Amino acid sequence: VHGDTSLHSPPQKAKQPLSLFAHGLGSSFVTFRGLLRHSSVVPPRSLRTSPFFSLLKMASAAASASNKVAKFVRQLYGICTDPSNHDIIRFRRDGTSFEVLNVRALEDVVFPTVFKHRNFASFHRQLLTHEFVKIGSLNEYVYKHPSFKRERPDLLPAIRRVAVKSETKARPAAAKGSDDDSVEDEQHHDVLAALEARFDDLEAEVSAIRAEHGASVAELKQENAKLWNIIVAQEEAQAFVQTALRALFSYLSSNGIVDLSSPMYSA
User: Fold this and answer.
1) pTM greater than 0.70
2) If phi over 0 gives left and psi between -120 and 50 gives alpha, with beta otherwise, what is residue 10?
3) Which residue has the higher pLDDT, 198 or 46?
4) Is 242 in contact with 249 (CB distance < 8 Å)?
């Protein structure tokens, strides 16, 4: 149930200081290693083989990996793990996918804090270009990626943006890294995302109309048959009444009870 946040346990805050410490330790090691490379000082073998030195190397690798995470992926992981957003967007119970619970709140509340837009269609397009897959029913916004899991930020560097084939052909290889192209790409992605979202909406509407009209046509045929039967029955009843009236007036006239030549019966 969406309201039960206990089913979607967020990452424990106790791990955050440790991760910050590891990142800082790794950065320190990178600086330390750079100083050693540019100097004639060689650390003794006892230091290079010590557990502390190994810890520094591991922290350095973790810090380097965190720097390789795509900006969008880093922002997405942040908003999905933020407990204050769990009534809007969060990881699902199994931790291998995330869900959007409130699209309007996501656009109005969350997006302004991390993105430069408030467009869910653009967000959806970014997910697709980073190889996320939309799962669940048509009315659910659930997305999944093999390397996007709760409490596994070490997997995030594996999530990379996939270039659209058309833009790869149209853009010269030398201009791939320019900022202008990146801005233009984002604009193109926004337009494409909006068109895709609109197409999905129209497809859903068409399916609903077909289902609704299929039932309506059958109902209309049944109603039409009923009305036709009623009309036929009324026509038969009217013909019977007219025949009975003619016979009655003929009897009354033949017995001198009424005079059919009177203006009263001329109509």
Assistant:
1) no
2) beta
3) 198
4) no
